[in-house]
Amino acid sequence: MARTGRRPGAGGTRDKILAAARTQFGRHGYEGATIRGIATAARVDPRLVLHYFDSKDGVFEAALELPFDPAAALPPLLAAGVDGLGIRLARFFVDVWDSPSGTRLHAMLRSIVASESAATRMRDFATREILGRVAEALELDHPRLRASLAASQLIGVAMLRYVVKVEPLASAPAAEVAEWVGPTLQRYFTEPTATHRRRRPSPGR
Amino acid sequence: MARTGRRPGAGGTRDKILAAARTQFGRHGYEGATIRGIATAARVDPRLVLHYFDSKDGVFEAALELPFDPAAALPPLLAAGVDGLGIRLARFFVDVWDSPSGTRLHAMLRSIVASESAATRMRDFATREILGRVAEALELDHPRLRASLAASQLIGVAMLRYVVKVEPLASAPAAEVAEWVGPTLQRYFTEPTATHRRRRPSPGR
């Protein structure tokens, strides 16, 4: 019955740290918040914060309550290279949203749209932890624009399939949605841009 | 200084009708709400509702405060056929969001994510007035799924470019965003599905 991997009975302390972390991140942003500041606000020893969450990144992510850890989930998806990356990411995304913990993503989306500071916090995190990792794996010009376009398609599916529940997208099987959306991501990752095509030096130069 | 096309000084009545309409649509849904019910709630003659808004659709759309009228905006975009439809819709969408009235769409998106009943109301309207029209213009199988996938890409751009403001998507020129996103919509509109390819009867049958 105890929480996995942590001392039983310590739920109260962990939750107190998370509540303090949300306040600190909300007030000072990711850069401004510190382990020490979070510990002081939660009235615990800073070493206890590290005991539970390992790092500032760890506290931040737990405070966001994402149902997956990008630092663990993305590398295996990216390791196989750009080939087929679109469909792998699309499948992963739809599977997480379709899982029971998808409701937490719904709550996160709600807080992003409702609050400017939640949007900023999430933007900083997603840019660094998700878009940054994907952009690094890409091999063409404008890797960050490409990664953010792919993210826009995925967030749009989340909005219409899970939040607004537009049919037939809401009821389509996960695999079918991934098959439609995967090639969109792949095109963003691998399509040469018009600029790129125009500016590519000719073999003679 | 008067509101365009309507009697000056009548703003109070018009706003009273709109407030009553929002309550009626919220309570009874689009199908259940009536011109008579809205008029009664606003304490005006039903003919006054029609004077200001022409029809139930008209009241509904004014209550949503969309910065464009799908019944007027979509037919010209669709009339030129499926060829190039993706880029035309992408340009139209980005231009409306980039215009000063884009803030009203932002407010609408916020209310959809925050409230289940706003989501339902918007879903019914968008399905009928936007997705329905686009689906009718398509020539392949699954027209409604195709239209809703295209809508998911557009809503996703709205989320990341205008709400969360993820760079470099937030600052990219409108034309560049439309050039990236247009072919995505076009692919949803015109790509034969795997099922379609598999199930297409052979010439001999």
Keywords for this structure?
homodimer; 205 residues; mainly alpha; Arc Repressor Mutant, subunit A; Tetracycline Repressor, domain 2; 73% helix; globular
Shape of chain A: globular
**Unreliable runs of chain A, pLDDT <50, ≥5 residues?**
1-9, 196-205
Averaged pLDDT of chain A: 84
| Count of all domains of chain A | 2
Helix content of chain A: over 70%
Identify the biggest protein-protein contact and residues per side: A-B, 43 and 43 residues
The CATH superfamily name of the largest domain in chain A is Tetracycline Repressor, domain 2
CATH arch. level architecture of the largest domain in chain A: Orthogonal Bundle
Describe the sheet with the most strands of chain A: none
| CATH topology term of the largest domain in chain A | Tetracycline Repressor, domain 2
List the helices and strands and how they pair.
2 copies of one chain form a homodimer.
Chain A: H1 11-32, H2 35-42, H3 46-53, H4 56-64, H5 70-79, H6 85-98, H7 102-114, H8 116-137, H9 143-163, H10 174-190, H11 194-199
Helix pairs in contact in A: 1-2, 1-4, 1-8, 2-3, 3-4, 5-8, 6-9, 6-10, 7-8, 8-9, 9-10
Task: Please describe what this structure looks like.
The structure is a homodimer of 205-residue chains. By secondary structure, chain A is an all-alpha fold. The first copy, chain A, has 2 domains: 11-64, Homeodomain-like (Arc Repressor Mutant, subunit A), CATH 1.10.10; 70-193, Orthogonal Bundle (Tetracycline Repressor, domain 2), CATH 1.10.357. Chain A contains 11 helices and no strands. In chain A, helix 1 (11-32) packs across helix 8 (116-137). The longest helix of chain A is centred in the N-terminal third of the chain and has 22 residues, at 11-32. Chain A is globular and about 50 Å long. The first copy, chain A, starts with 10 loop residues before the first helix and ends in a 6-residue tail after the last helix. The relative contact order of chain A is 0.10. The model of chain A is unreliable at 1-9 and 196-205 (pLDDT under 50). Chains A and B meet through helix 7, helix 8, helix 9 and helix 10 of A and helix 7, helix 8, helix 9 and helix 10 of B.
